[in-house]
Amino acid sequence: MKGPIRKVLIANRGEIALRVIRACREMEIRTVAVHSTVDESALHVRFADEAVCVGPGPATQSYLNIPNLISAAELTGADAVHPGYGFLSERADFARVCGKCGLNFIGPRPEHMAMMGDKVRARQTMAEAGVPVLPGTGVITSTAEALEAVERIGVPVIIKASAGGGGRGMKIVRDASKLAETLATAQAEAQAAFGNGDVYIERYVTSPRHIEIQVVCDKHGNAIDLLERECSIQRRHQKIIEEAPSAALSDSVRAAMRKAAVAAVKAIGYQSVGTLEFLLDGEDKFYFMEMNTRIQVEHCVTEMITGVDLVQEQIRIANGEELGHLDREHHARGHAIECRINAEDPINFSPQPGTITALHFPGGYGVRVDSHVYQGYRVSPYYDSMIGKVIAWGKDRDQALRRIRRALDEIVVEGIRTNVPLHRWLLKQEAFVTGRYDTHFLEQKLDPAAVAAEAEPQN
Ligand code: MV4
Fold first, then answer.
1. Pocket test for ligand 1, best of 119, 289, 438, 440 (most atoms within 8 A of CB)
2. Of 161, 185, 203, which residue is a domain's last?
3. What is the pLDDT of residues 239-274, one digit of tens each?
4. Which of 156, 163, 346, 400 could form an SS bridge with 196, CB 3.0 to 4.6 Å?
5. What is the pLDDT of residues 187-202, one digit of tens each?
6. What is the number of structural domains in the chain?
7. What is the model's pTM?
């Protein structure tokens, strides 16, 4: 890996591939898109300087096909690879292969990706760095060990897969008599899902908020944070709305969370952008959950309040540049809210593949739309149902809320159902308006009839 990056292969598709191409163009870096046969006429293919077909529709044969991606990079003379989010973005083996092939992987070092992918190791590492973690265990090796842990911690507890993450492979135990049985199921399911049956136990926080800190770390030991994102509006661990800053954080708790995050990444020598996920309980105590070693879908709300282009920062860091130019204290201003627009039924959440027959996106002051779809676009059943993100900025939360509601009223997507009616309903709920909601809000309060009413023509 020598010299600055001149040509980036984007090992991804959809809106994030466009996002990376846009960052590269502004930096005068050439781009190579890769695509499956299904994505031949996708915008990332058209916006990139070059494009290479890497396989058929199923992602395992194209966007996850490491030999084909590396071949595409060699064929086109790319000197760097940006993995986006999802797909290979947190695969340490992919980052390692890129390095071995002389490609600059735009992301953290493989060691840190592997460390954070192992949730038991991540938890231990963070605890050693002085970051608060919940009472819990290492890998559980026997029922006796699990019973002992629950005696110490008390119920409820949660059993998590060490190779899981993002809410996958978790089981709540509310009654110690169910522990042995649930443990066996959790281990079997972890083995089947991740090829690794290791599980661990933590005290279960019943009504937490999910708050994450964005960090930016260069290769010279400098690390800063770019404040938090509030991500508690989710369903089945899929975030739906994110905002920055969080309405739930007092200045003192925010300061403590930021300090813990920066101390942690400095302690481990982390490089690149990353996110530390915390749970905040009802008593203003926060606990480390996971660290994401990629750019995230919701990075835009941080960009909107800080003025920092996080993808360009990833590239600068990969180039070995220092963070000196980042002056967050001067930039953080106002409030941003993001709505993820999904091609799915707004009531039952079933995916809605099909052709978009008419499309209009919102605009105007303070509104950003990151999307790869257009009129005539065919939403494929092979990939994620997210068709774009609408982000609104305001000088305060109230203005951001009014603006995102206005923006959502301007959207037209015809031909397929989307979750826009769900957003319109959500943004009017008192709990959302007052900022008093936790991770269970959507699943507990969803009102199908009221969401259906939002799907009717509004005027
Ligand atoms: C928890 C938890 C409560 N207690 N761990 C889900 C995503 C993953 N990053 C961590 N997650 C959680 N871990 C303990 N010890 C609650 C969540 C959680 C959650 C749990 C059930 C339903 C929705 C949730 C949404 C966010 C986080």
1. 289
2. 203
3. 999 999 999 999 999 999 999 999 999 999 999 999
4. 163
5. 999 999 999 999 999 9
6. 3
7. 0.97
